[in-house]
Amino acid sequence: MSLELQRLAALRACAILDTAPHPAFDCLTRAAALAFDVPIALVSLVDAERQWFKSVLGVGLRETPRSVSFCSHTIGGFEPMVVPDVTRDARFAQNPLVTGAPHVRFYAGAPLIEEDGYALGSLCILDTRPRDLTSEQVRLLGHLADAVMHAIDAHRTRLELKELGRRLNGQDHLPAPEALPRRA
Q1: Segments of 13-118 assigned E as strands
Q2: d(CA 127, CA 133)
Q3: Mean of the per-residue pLDDT values for the chain?
Q4: What is the rounded (10 degree) CA torsion for 125, 131, 132, 137?
Q5: d(C-alpha 17, C-alpha 55), whole Å
């Protein structure tokens, strides 16, 4: 199986695509926007043909085609990607998000790396003017991305516990507490 197929399987295993907004993610995008004084912050999950936003601040989009995704480039590495002026970068200069609304000029994204090392997407910040980040700000963006990944892990754990509870409630007979193994 190719690395991309493995990455997509890891993304789908999180069961987070197309789920409702959640305060934990929205809090982190607001924190990123405030910390970096940017008008746009997103939790972006990169699927096979699209990038879908678990949380979005500053634009009215819920997803874009992967072909116009800045974050598709971010997930190719393990470190944050900073593009001070996207109009000067051949990968992005003709992007419709640059040439049209919201007229992106700056992009920085930190990959969301799950426990097996697959990048599911990114926490990204965008601005309508060129800018740069200090090394401390790049580290902060990475820490915020780690917090997003913890929220994704918590989402997945909640689902697993809910499924376990459903299975246990469906059983006719549960062992008596004294029949369960004791912890050492």
Answers
A1: 40-46, 50-57, 63-65, 81-83, 106-113
A2: 12
A3: 92
A4: -50
A5: 11
Residues sharing a CB contact under 8 Å with residue 183, sequence separation 6 or more, in sequence order = none
How many Cα atoms sit within 13 Å of 125 on the Cβ side?
29
User: Cβ–Cβ contacts within 10 Å for residue 75, how many?
Assistant: 25
- Quick check: helix, strand or coil at residue 1? coil
Angle (CA) 125-128-131 rounded to 5° is 70
Q: How confident is the model at residue 171 (pLDDT cuts 50, 70, 90)?
A: low
Q: pLDDT tens digit string along 54-105?
A: 999 999 999 999 999 999 999 999 999 999 999 999 999 999 999 999 999 9
Q: What is the C-alpha separation between 53 and 76, in angstroms, rounded?
A: 18
Q: How far apart are the first and last CA of the chain?
A: 40
Tell which phi-psi region holds residue 37, choosing left (phi > 0), alpha (psi between -120 and 50) or beta.
left
> What is the layout of strands, in order, in the sheet containing 63-65?
63-65, 50-57, 40-46, 119-127, 106-113, 81-83
